[in-house]
Amino acid sequence: MGEPAFWLTSPTTNPVVRGQPTQVRYWVNASDGTTPCGAANYYIDTQAAGGQWVITTPQPQYWKGCPAGLPGGAGGLYLSGSDTAKLSPGWHTLIIDYLGSGKYAPCEFKAPFWVVNPGPTTSPL
User: pTM here?
Assistant: First the structure.
């Protein structure tokens, strides 16, 4: 499964900020060279993630299935500011379970991510 979000590639320098929206896209690199579409389940710290879970519909221009990489992918998780506000500051674990299909086996992506409180706000001069 491809690296789905910038906040997962370098979690301490690109943390999730509590109260601010964020998103994750995922894609699957199958052994036959395709990037299949399909559903996934999302978990944060072994609990079903909140937010909006989206499945990409196959498009004719993507003969290999769904688009690979960002911002394409087989689907995504969109967390609103109220969703991220529920996360405590510190380390968490995101798990994306691609459910597979009649042709493709299921697979899993697991990565730690860092959540921080928002910084102080200042008014423009």
Answer: 0.81
